[in-house]
Amino acid sequence: MPPSIFHMLERNVGKKIRVILDPAYGFEGILAAVTQEPSGIWLSDAEAVVLRSTMAQPIPQVASREDRSELFLNLNSVQRIEIIHAPRR
Question: What average pLDDT values come out for the chain (89 residues) when binned by 10 residues?
């Protein structure tokens, strides 16, 4: 039986993630918890991010940030979740 989205998210608790809600807006923060009822995730040390892409740079880049605190996001409104890895030295 393949792992569910909840199992995959629970493996990443404590890691920094970026949650995209629409092509131009999302949140970054530390994945604090995963809940099944209601289906969602809790972020700590969250920041709201605005994403921009251009013809020359089609991959969306973070254009601005705004501090938030603790945040609950319902998985029904999430388009994409990215794990942010620390840069290697």
Answer: 83 94 94 92 95 89 91 93 85
Residue 71: beta bridge partners?
A: 43
pTM of this prediction?
0.84
Q: What is the pLDDT of residue 1?
A: 56
**Residue 1, amino acid:** M
What is the phi/psi pair of residue 80, to 5°?
-155, 145
E strand or H helix at 10, and its extent?
A: helix 5-10
Nearest to 43 by CA among 87, 13, 4: 13
Between the alpha carbon of residue 33 and those of residues 39, 69, 70, the distances in Å are 11, 14, 11
Residue 47 has a pLDDT of 95
CA 75 distance to own-chain centroid: 11
Burial status of residue 44 (CB atoms within 10 A of its CB: 0-12, 13-18, 19 or more): middle
